[in-house]
Amino acid sequence: MYDVFGIGNPLLDAIVKVNDSHLVELSLKKGHMHLVDENYSKKIFDRFKNNELMFVPGGDVVNTMTGIANLGGKTIFLGKIGADKHGFIIEETMNKDGVKTILIKGDKPTGSCISLVTPDNERTLITHLGSAITLTEKEIILKDIKNSKILYITGYILEDPILRNICILAMDEARKHNKKIAIDVADPGVVKRAKDDICSIIKKYANIVFANEEEVLALTGKPKEEGLNKLSKLAEIAIVKIGRAGVLISEKGVIHKVKGFNVNAVDTTGAGDMFAAGFLFGLTNNYTVKQAGLIGNFAASKVVQQLGGRVDVSLKDEIKKLF
Prior knowledge:
CATH topology: UDP-N-acetylmuramoyl-L-alanine:D-glutamate ligase
Strand order of the largest sheet: 6-5-1-9-10-11-12-13-14
Radius of gyration: 18 Å
Order of helices and strands: EEHEHEHEHEEEEHHEHEHHEEEHHH
CATH architecture: 3-Layer(aba) Sandwich
Number of strands: 14
Strand content: 25-35%
Distance between the termini: 26 Å
Oligomer: single chain
Mean pLDDT: 94
Number of domains: 1
């Protein structure tokens, strides 16, 4: 019934263009995700309230599920929002985009992610998880995992102990029904904070694992090809994204190098999310692993040409022209 079942943190993204000096002023590490509390999030909103802000539903797994739907796939998403305006926007937009949602409503406000985009098009994230992090085992509904081809989660949700346990329940459910499990490492900072847990989970559960150059270095201590080789020992399909150069994929030890698309990047927000969307769409719709990598690169190239982590025009017909 579904190509991919995703579990993640639904957030309302706020995108703002800044200068590098702003990152220095706020003591933020460029290109990383910074988890903050509600008060700090409000402080950042106040700091940039006079700037032009763009609001869109976000969160890495939300972006990926929406991306798969854009490409013509069928997805379902589980997460927790607040019973507020921001939560309503996320639910309404995802349903409009063709994603089936299981959105639990909590007492805390809907989470947010402020994406600070510098002139080099790099994004630095300030994330307040809000209701997302209050999801409990009693609230989750996992019955549709058996009706899905792949379960998809990321390192962001594996960092928190409670959410990690929820993911383990979901992965055990997937295993029970012989479903594939895909894990995106998500962020080098997450790896540094929860490396042992993430490595253990990847080794035990992952059929497919995604990482970029920084993440594979943080995870394995090795760059690019060497890191991919170590990563391939943990999962049958291991992927290292290398930006505009494309992607390296190890499929049961066979290495595929898939070139990227040379485009003028405006904002790298969502590039990894859209790569995962393209790759998982390809894998669940009878494309080869190498073809899935090309679709992933294509989808990522589309999202970096605009602000935000989602592509608002349909890519269904365009991917057919790739082959």
